[in-house]
Amino acid sequence: MKGPKILAIASAIDLDFRYGCTPAWWQLWKGLYEAGVDLIVTPYRGRPVESPWWRTAPNPAYLEGESFARARDTWARLKGDRYLRRAEADPGDTDKLVREVVWRWVTPRWKRHVERILEREGDVDAVLVFTVPMAHLRGIPTALRQQFDLPVVFYDGDVPMSLPEFGGMDTGFNYYFGADPGEYDLVVSNSEGGLDRLRELGARRAEALFWAADPELFRPLPVEKEHDVFFYGYGDKFRREWMRELVGEPSRRLPDVDFALGGEDFQGDVGAARTLGVIPFNAFNRAISSTRVALNVTRRAHASVRASSTARPFELAMAGAAIVSNPVEGIETWFEPDRELVVVHDADEATAAYGELLGDPSRLAELGAQARERALDEHTYAHRARRLLVLLGLGVRETVA
Q: Measured between alpha carbons, how far is 401 from 390 in angstroms, rounded to an integer?
């Protein structure tokens, strides 16, 4: 039986851009391949990157995209910063002028590009848009449906950060200003609690598909422990108060405990924690295995909207880490507190948890083993790929053999 054929329009394929979603897309696309999907991926930012699991099509606006990115970076440097910052609360429509230029020059080019791919392939079963700014493709889903009679689906992996009231990360765009979610047959979201808001914005159908982790990429490694408490993240926007409670204050109270931070753009209170800089994706699993306690510090937006998944807890669990997390609304959807991870509510609880766990290696090992077992049972990208195909109605059973 011939497997489904899907055209994916992706925010980026190149890991060098350090977009938070890109490593997750790689794992999901691998899962789709393993489920029998013939996948063609075309990037909205950067160049196409080949892999054993998908074919590629070029980026029709590569030069324009890179020129815009360089101009944006230059403007940020002139303002004395790395990024053009947005307010954390209701930043408003910050992309209006850019959007007008995109609609005039970029959107028509992308429409022709996708039409040519579909004409050439001839038998594509669905088009999936992965975290491309929805407004930038305005009108394209309606045109594709009319011309090719196939479903067009938007997968937003950043809810609720991407919603208008949050405005997205400083490195990206406002997705929904000027957009029409009703153009899509389905809007897939990483957040269960964000589905009603997506419907309010116009989505005709909205379904949740959580993040996960590939057990071949994330697994316990037999390496020496180099850190006592470790956190990795793309900056601390929307989580500075929790970085203070889980890192800054405990690191001052526990001077004999080694706190280490991977990543960059930490502007809040990180106390005595030492910084490791950016960790390449191929070294991330090793970094997790090299720590005794791994932190999941979820941004306020995701932590406060029920069951808004992020990649980190699944990656840590699949790697067999002993996880300590800030409170996340709905975390029990994925992991059982006190059995598969520890949830702390302030610096006092965090300090006590670190002391208890670091003094009991058997408890550390038990937490990590229970978390990995749960992840293997329910949270692999094989599970998510099959779930996505069920949502698309492409006739693949959701159970994993």
A: 15
